[in-house]
Amino acid sequence: MKIAFTPHVEHYTIGMLNELKKNHIVILISDKKYNIDGIRFLFLPKTRLPYINLFTRSIFLEKIASCLEYDVFHVNSAIDGCSISNFEKIILTEHGYPNIWVETFSKKPYYIKEMKCLEVLYSIGVPIIAISNYTSTMLYKYLGVKATKVIYHGLLDEFRVNVPRVPRKRHVLLWIGRFVPAKEPEVFLHALKLVRGRKLFKVIIRGDGPLRFKILKLVKKMGLENKVRFLKRMPFYDVIKLYRIASIYVHTASAEPFGFSVLEAMGSGLPVIVPRAGGAYEVAGPQSLTFYPGDSFDLADKIESLIDDEEEYYKQSKRSIERAKYFCWGKTVKEYIEVYKKIL
Prior knowledge:
single chain, alpha/beta, Rossmann fold, six-stranded parallel beta sheet
């Protein structure tokens, strides 16, 4: 089978294509180069102006698709899907739900277009894959779009460990995400303030975004400057080192479509603390350590419980490793192939 493919986040793109290329011909059409051997790469031009880039991308994608031979065209945004005229061969993975009210102002035009394109593709019968049951529910709730199937992401083996973590005297808490309202970073900071005077810990926050200066100001106001270290974006495989350094992973986004960082943390053997809602809770599973969404006091209690109880810490680390085994790229791609075959 010859599969044309547009990328999404790096972990997804690498995991999908490394598995697909084992038995199929893969053509990656992207404005970014990926370190994946054994596939064909077609380059999409890119400008520094986001909305002009969106326009030119659609034009070039349409031209490339019209000249390309393929059996299936797997797109990872509805906007890309609407750029391709041969709708009968398209499959779309929708990696969230384009709710314009949870995004920053600068992102709203993109989300509005993604929403409209998604409705168009759904109306003409393009198979739409949701990445979690939560995402599937939200697509139907907000747009009336019923997903063809829910297919979970896998986890790259580079993130996996086999031995549970040993509790530390001084824990390192890790938070990864964009500084936007939907990720709820302030919930984490307020919880840290509550724990600050009672426990020994350090914090690593890796992220950037429009709330950055607000977050920095809040850290200073709360007297957390000596506790918190900020890191910006880094090469994909360098993130693995962060999980090795950390001892507890905290996720605060209660409307997360999936939660790749939660899965990566679990595979790395970290006990994870997630809100009792959204895709992150679905990924972490009902036996994970959870807190009420938006409740910094409850989150602080859960952080303290892991720091205080060595037996519980070890138990949660072991549970994370076992839970992560459920998410496998081989299984993910097998499910996608079943969908591909239905449109041939």
